[in-house]
Model the fold of this input.
Amino acid sequence: MSQPTYNSTEMLICTASRLMTDNSTAFIGTGIPMLAASLAQKMHAPNLTTIFEFGGMGAILDDLPVAVGGRRTFHRALSALGILDVIEAAGRGFIEYGFIGGAQIDPYGNLNSTVIGDFYKPKVRLPGSGGGNDVGSHCWQTIAIMRHDRRRFIEKVDFITTPGYLTGPGAREATGLPPGTGPYRVVTNLALLGFHPESKRMMLLATQPGVSVEEVLENTGFELLLADQVVENPPPSEEELRILREEVDRERFYI
Amino acid sequence: MKILREGRGEILQPPDINAFREWNRKKSKSLVDKRMSEAEAVGRFVHNGDFIGTELYGTVRCPMSIVNEIVRQDIKGLRLVGQGVYDSDILLAAGLVKEMDFTYIGLELYGISHVIRREIDAGRVEKIVEWSNGALVWRFKAAAMGVPFIPVRSMLGTDTFEYSAAKLVECPFTGDPIALAPALILDVGIIHVHRADMYGNCQIDGITGFAYEMSRASKTLIVSAEEIIPTEQIRRQPDRTIIPYYLVDAVVHAPFGSHPGEMCYLYERDEGHIQLWAEVSKEPDTTKAYLDKYIYNLKDHREYLELIGEERLRELREMVPKTR
Done:
């Protein structure tokens, strides 16, 4: 059998998609999470309830939403209400997964999407929290999707927009965040990462196909823990690629 | 209640609930015809230095005909509650925004806003106070409830909190820390809807974003509508009214009022136009040329639609899927 060829964005989408379990609820942010959710619904999770920030719950992702408020985020959905209904559902503990992104991430999974450089004299003014902080505060398990390099994976982010484990074990609870919540996975073009159950520091779980552990470490600007057994993720299957290219992102906005 | 920590951001709009109540008491409760043009609505109700909010999500239901009129009338020193893509970019590009309660300004798929950076560098945006989307909608909810603050579990432990005007307190019931966010009362709220009657009773199709809460947190509310409908149609389906007339001060008939944004079931987003803005807004001179062409050189929203062209508008309408 010939090896299918694919690009790193497609690998990223497949990795995120495989984390989405059937019959669960997932808060879907802009971009890659939308593609991953659409792929998951068509592959293994037909009853994944997608939740979009501005009020759409349970949409069937036949067409790729390009924005979190567009009509596709409530296409054949189960409800179409407002932002408060969605964020309060997370606040009451109804939303299992929250998919988010950021420009920078630190070893505790804290995310920056607000500013690079000084807050008052920014080098780059990023879009800001939007719902990111709410997702990272209230969803049970947050999954960050990022490009992997030393500028993005850094010891200390310039601004904590969205809480990870903050300064380490117990810090979330101490500041009043709901107990039992926090970062669960980080999906990158190089690796799948998790968090050590005690130290809450980021830990390499798996490399993307063809990527070495050394390569991941070289592209990480902080000390990364290694799981007892770092495995290699399987590449996208032919079925995943076909659905991704022919059904999920027909217009090739992303891939 | 013990205050444990305070954000360093300023409260840009004081949560004066008693003044809000007095204001609301004086608002007319009569069923009167409130229809008027964009020019009249903005001229009468939006003033230099006002704290305003445009209700939308991304480019969905963005009240562009009103925003463009604010730019045309050059209403300065605005304070803005910031959750926007194209609309807030336009106000910023015109140099009209002085202070912001900020949560998201960007171009979604097309990356970061180029305009906000220039406005900060030029010193025209003097104050930015950070919030999350949740915190902002809860701040509207507090105003809607008629209370000066609301406890929230967002922003805790982060710089988003540090640069906000929230306070961290010890909960008097559980003893756990919790954030308090001040009620946010807008001088002027601006909302684009699918249908309104002449009194201001409004219906929205699809998801409703911030509309419910923001409409109830606004001292003055300007509504623009794709269609003006008879009150009988409102009365036939009162469960569809999301904004009741007494909240509303102006009703503007604005077909394609959200262009280049979208209105679900009516027309799609004008992707090419959004891409055009993403491109021209990179540089000050092309930004200015854009504002000249699409706002300053035009008299009103009708001329704007003529410039976009009937053919393009028809295309955007026809892109809406036929089956619902």
In short: Residues 128 and 146 of chain A are 16 Å apart (CA to CA). Helices of chain A lie at 8-18, 32-43, 83-91, 132-138, 171-174, 213-218, 238-248. The radius of gyration of chain A is 18 Å. The longest strand of chain A covers residues 225-232.
